[in-house]
Amino acid sequence: MSTAILTGQPVPGSSLEGDLRSLGFDVRLASDAGEAETLLAAVPADQRVAVVDARFVGHLHALRLGLTDPRFAAAALRGAISVQPEARRALTRAVARESSANGGLAVTTDDLAERLTAALDADGVAVHRPELGTLVAVVPADPQERNEARQAVSAVDDEAVRLRSAVKARDGFFTTYCISPYSRYIARWCARRGLTPNQVTTASLITALIAAGCAATGTRAGFVAAGLLLLFSFVLDCTDGQLARYSLQYSTLGAWLDATFDRAKEYAYYAGLALGAARGGDDVWALALGAMILQTCRHVVDFSFNEANHDATANTSPTAALSDRLDSVGWTVWVRRMIVLPIGERWAMIAVLTALTTPRITFYALLVGCAFAASYTTAGRVLRSLTRKARRTDRAARALADLTDSGPLAEALNRLARGAVRRGPAAVAFVAGALVVLGAALAPYGSWWPVLGAVVYVLLSPVALARPLKGALDWLVPPFYRAAEYLTVLVLAAKADVNGALPAAFGLVAAVAYHHYDTVYRIRGNAGAPPHWLVRAIGGHEGRTLLVTVLAALLAATQFKIALTALAVAVALLVLVESIRFWVSSGAPAVHDEGEPA
């Protein structure tokens, strides 16, 4: 239970006290600042507490946004302020100053919430002020203003506003026009029955896994059922976020589940399609793994570019200006959002093709579509970077270095070479990756040429550590390393030409990709990279790449398959245990993905 301290004389006919109780607040009345101080001291330290002016007039949803959002330590509206335990001490000091300065006189309750908000601002506490739009939140000074405020409240349907704001402000065409118009009502239905976003997220995962199981049957009926269930899983995937925004049920665990389950659902579905195709005598595991690699590398490009420019100064570019001008033309916005094949369009395409065609055709279409999307977005970002006058910060450079996932070999070589490689890190990373992938692709299975390529790759790996990654194209270093590692595993497994090698490679890449996604969301939450011991334990990108090439050179194809499986299990166990430990801990950041449709 949270506590709301209502200051001043209650206003006859006001619904404020009932509104606060409906939001879960235990309402206490304070006639002066001294009494407010006494009531505040009586509230348990682990509870949220709000101070609200009794004259407040506004929509219930305005109060919900200003007083109950769990993401912020302190939040305020006109005439109301709410703090969570971490900001409680600052509020206590501010109330004590008000009480002692004014002698506890009743008149000091006028605008007390406003003065407390100003005091928290002065104390350096970040006070969130929600955007209300058409919602009303005022403190009338006289009866005439009160009547006008009540009329303004009556003129706006706050439930309609609440439903509308439950939908992401920026989303893909398919999601915006084919899913959100009705999924928001599913979210409201869930809220009224006490369901949580985490429960809906879990239901979405289970539905997608059942869809993957249906696809694995390899029958036409199974494929049709898989397509329908995948679409329903996506509806639930939209619903969980809308439910969180509708009812302000944000949580760290929920943010992590939503971020990781999307990838788990999609990649599990790829595996289901590959299993179904195998039942029909068609081996498409290489295509499935290729699709996973391409999609993961697309995300790494997104993450790296965004982190590189997250807090850059003088961040201007003619290419960006052209993009902004195109965004002023309505139809170009939707075309540009669709051609990048965001998750809604991508899942709709996969679902339809699964139901109507074969897994091979589905993967071909997916690879072509994602390759075009990746080329379009990456080319645009390269142009922006080359024409942009930006000064990148140490934080951005640290984030890019963490995203490279450099292990003990790269660190040791960097210390020995003392940062010898200082120019063109993106070009060096590209050349190093190309060497190891080409070595694996051009040599027969069992050859030592891929090992030689991997050795060169390892020797050049300190490029990400030699100097801060603040160059125009340095954000390409993590994607190049991801592509090199994943493609090396794919090529060597395909070269082994033994049943089960590619599924084992699929599992290994999935485990490593999870680690990389986990790194991204920790960085987004300003929690830094995963612990150094974990990165060292799983070898870093250069250690894993070298290990896989050595295993392929030393072992027979069947033994190589077993080794890949064992490596996949070991990496998965390490990264999952540490990731789960971190994300369910009290220190985990609340990361909510509101703006990236990919």
Summarize the structure.
This protein is α/β, with parallel strands linked by helices and 598 residues long. Helix content is 67%, strand content 6%.
Largest sheet: 6 strands, mixed
Gyration radius, to the nearest Å? 28 Å
- Across the major sheet, the strand order is 2-1-3-6-5-7
Strand coverage percent: 5-15%
The residue fraction in helices comes out at 55-70%
| Structural class based on helices, strands and sheet pairing | alpha/beta
- Outline, from the CA principal axes? globular
Mean pLDDT: 90
- Count of helical stretches: 26
The stretches of 5 or more residues where confidence is low (pLDDT under 50) are 104-108, 593-598
Please report the distance between the alpha carbons of the first and last residues: 38 Å
Strand segment count:
10
Structure, described:
With 598 residues, the chain is an alpha/beta fold. 67% of the residues lie in helices and 6% in strands. It is built from 26 helices and ten strands. A six-stranded mixed β-sheet has the order 2-1-3-6-5-7, with helices on both faces. It is globular, with a radius of gyration of 28 Å. It starts with a strand and ends in a 15-residue tail after the last helix.
